[in-house]
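pinging the channel bc i need a second pair of eyes. not urgent but kinda urgent?? the chain im working w is below, pasted from the shared doc
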Amino acid sequence: MVSKDGTPIAFERIGEGPPVILVGGGLDDGTENAPLARELARKFTVVNYARRGRGESGDTPPYAVRREVEDLDALVTEVGGPAFLYGVSSGGALALEAAALGVAVGKVAVYEVPYLVGEGMVAAWREYVARLGEALGRDDRDAALELFMRLARASDEEIAGARGAPVWPALVGMAHTLAYDAACLGDGPPPKRLAEIGQPVLVLTGGGLGGLPGFFDEAADALAAILPHRERRTIEGTGHVADAGRVAPVLSEFFTR
C-alpha cells in the first residue's frame, strides 16, 4: 500500500470480520503485535503494519505526525473503513491523533501510552527529546538507543546486555524513529485537543509489572480525564509488552459491544 506522500507502507491482513488496525509502539516493526493479530483474527479482519521508517515500510522525509496519520487513513481506506484502532505505547498516541484529526475510525483502544505527568517527569522528557535530537543529528543511533533505555530506567548492566543481544543491530536500524515517537507524544502531557475525540476510547494499562511502577497508570488516568467518551481498565498480570492472550478478549468485548 502507498500512503498519500508516496511512502510504501508494509502490512499483513489476516482474518475476517470488522476491521481492526494495530498500531505498534517504539522500536517495533509490527513484530510485537503479531501474536495479538492472530488472536483477534478469529473474529476480526486484522491489519498489523510497520509504521514508516520500520521494517519493510518506507520513510519519506521530512517527518511529520500528520504523515503518520495519513498512513493510518490509507490503511482504513485499504480495508474499506471505518476501522477500529488499537495503539500500543507511542502507537496509542498516534491512534488518538488520528481519531482527533477525523480519520474514519470507530472505537479506539490504547495500551500504556507514556504521557508524562508532573513537572519533574515533563522536565526529564524534554531533556531527553533535546538530547535525542542531538544524538540523531550526528547520526549516533547507538547513543540514541541508550538515551531511550535510560529514560525507561534501564541499568548499566541491562544496557550492556542489550548491546550484546542479537536484536541490537535491528534496534539501531530503527533508532531514528524514536524521534517520531517523541513527536507523537508531543510536550509530554496528554494534549487537550484529544477532548475533541467523539469515539469511545478504551484506556488500558497492565498490572504494574516492570521498572516503572505507577507511571503508566498515572498517564492513563490523566488521559482518561480529558477524553469525553472513555472507559478505563487494568489488565492484571501483564507488562508493557502485553500478553496477547490477556489483551485479545478485552479488545474483542469492547469492539463488539
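so Residues 119-137 form the longest helix (19 residues). and DSSP finds ten helices and seven strands in the chain. — does that match what u expected or am i reading it wrong
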